[in-house]
Amino acid sequence: MLTVWSHPESYVLPPEEQGGKASPTNSEDYKTPPEDDPMTECRTPDVGNSKLSRYLTRSLKKAELEGKCIPISSTKKDDLQTKRIPRRSTKIGGVYTPDKRLKKLFQSCKKPKYTPLADLEKAQFQEFQSILREKPAQEFEIVIGIHVSNKFFLSLARPTNWVSTEHISVLISMLVRRHGRNYLSRRCRFVDYFSIAGIISKFAEFEKASDKLGFNWGGLVSFSFTGKTPRRNDKKVLLVDVDRVYAPMMWGKDHWVGLVINLTCRQVEILDCNIPLNESDNEVNKHMAYLLRALPHVLAAFSPPSDSSHPEEDQAFSWVRPDNIYFNERSGDCGPCA
């Protein structure tokens, strides 16, 4: 009998084939390279079962009589079975931008070092700005999967310019990409603006629902609270893996604030860079009422069962607004500050 191994662990040539000379593969320690090894292209393909007897040498027949089973290979093309081996493409790498100067300027494909927001190099920004101004309408996809134009960045960088929800989403996605894993290790998570807005927009419908525990809060809320957000599938669940949530929120139609939602102590810290704009507690309550009333119910819907019979009623949320944070004196910059 002749046994052919499709993927031999080691391949030792018979003495007659070697001619008495040492070979780097003629060793019991030699192993075939793994599928993803760069040397995989040089590997000998598998051998078929047809026409094998034509290539049996004396040493192979002798080994066969002695009851040994060794792999053989043929160099003839008609006897080779080609096998497609999946490998990562080397043609596309890094971050795509339509202008090579931007790629050279930032080299975003490299993993950024973990630091807070670094100081801006003004000379580098001036070069960046001049390149974008050449073609402000040019569109492309950035690394977080959002299609934007050069004008988008010019608008975001301009002082006192009101930023849209799209700008806020990009800023949050940037924070997640650069610092999200570090924050998750501390049981913290960033949440997009649309998740908070989704809770508030559905609260009136929720109050009319008979089955409050089974109420459908929508995909965006579900993704954020269960950790299955598209492009951010970290599989971390609130109150199980996460105790603190950072989220942006818009008050009315003209003011952004940052929220720090502490799930364990049931308190929301409001990072407001312009307190005099909504100075009284009554004004803050008007903006926060729906969210504070909805949060216990949302947590009860997406979190593991609690020992309490009505956890959503027993553990209400409160708010606090620290006053020792940065004060923004320029109107229109509340979004990036938040």
TrEMBL record:
<keyword id="KW-0378">Hydrolase</keyword>
<feature type="domain" description="Ubiquitin-like protease family profile">
    <location>
        <begin position="146"/>
        <end position="338"/>
    </location>
</feature>
<dbReference type="InterPro" id="IPR003653">
    <property type="entry name" value="Peptidase_C48_C"/>
</dbReference>
<keyword id="KW-0645">Protease</keyword>
<feature type="region of interest" description="Disordered">
    <location>
        <begin position="1"/>
        <end position="48"/>
    </location>
</feature>
<protein>
    <recommendedName>
        <fullName>Ubiquitin-like protease family profile domain-containing protein</fullName>
    </recommendedName>
</protein>
<dbReference type="Pfam" id="PF02902">
    <property type="entry name" value="Peptidase_C48"/>
</dbReference>
<dbReference type="InterPro" id="IPR038765">
    <property type="entry name" value="Papain-like_cys_pep_sf"/>
</dbReference>
<comment type="similarity">
    <text>Belongs to the peptidase C48 family.</text>
</comment>
